[in-house]
Design a protein that fits this description.
about 80 residues; alpha+beta; about 10% strand
Length: about 80
């Protein structure tokens, strides 16, 4: 997991996502060919489509090749929301 942290932070900062949106990403929500992330049921309970910058896209591709994972695995527990 520690090898995925730089990619997680790059997505958070580069795409302006919330922590809960990044940890909730699923493989099918990431389209690296077109450079689009799909955020399912965002704050307004609608899907959002987020473009990836070239640098974030390259980081994601590099992470996939090194780790053979993209969406950030977590134990099988209910997702948590960050505290305000």
């Amino acid at each position: 997991m520690h090898l995925a942290l730089p990619v997680i932070f790059r997505i958070l900062y580069g795409c302006g996502l919330r922590v809960s949106e990044v940890v909730g990403l699923r493989y099918k929500d990431v389209n690296l060919e077109d450079g689009i992330l799909t955020i399912r049921e965002a704050k307004t309970d609608r899907d959002r489509y987020i473009p990836l910058s070239d640098s974030v896209k390259e980081a994601c591709i590099g992470s996939w090749e090194r780790l053979n994972l993209f969406c950030f695995p977590a134990p099988k527990v209910a997702p948590t929301r960050p505290k305000n």
